[in-house]
Write a structure and sequence with these properties.
By secondary structure, this protein is of the alpha+beta class. The protein contains four helices and five strands. The chain is elongated.
Amino acid sequence: MSDLSHVDRSGQARMVDVSAKESTERFARATGVISMSAEALAAVRKNSVEKGDVLAVARIAGVMAAKRTAELIPLCHPLMLSDVQVVAVIDDTIPGIRVESTVRTAGKTGVEMEAIIAVSVTLVTVYDMCKSLDKSMVISDICLAEKTGGRSGTWKRP
């Protein structure tokens, strides 16, 4: 037997039954970074990357990914998301791009995975679009920064 929510009495992985839980407003914010050469970052800034507008395409990819999280992570519940925002900002101090996603819903389970997936796919899309300029880019520091709602309440990364 296990005290883990995603393991049944026989030790098998399972989706958690949330049918008895109360619906509450849910929010999650995740962040991440991609570092790249100054030359690649300059091309992103000038919008001269061969594949197109890197930041716009990456943001759209992140939103689309958040909406498909349950298809990617086997035990996640499909959720009706009420809002997904992805912000990608050039940061010369890295040099690279900082990404933040925020996700909201009213439901019986949280949106932490959706926020993390949005950041992850945004960053991987930046890599894909810029790889001809810099194959040594590094994606890092993907993490949950904050969540609210549900039984566990509010949590913020210290």
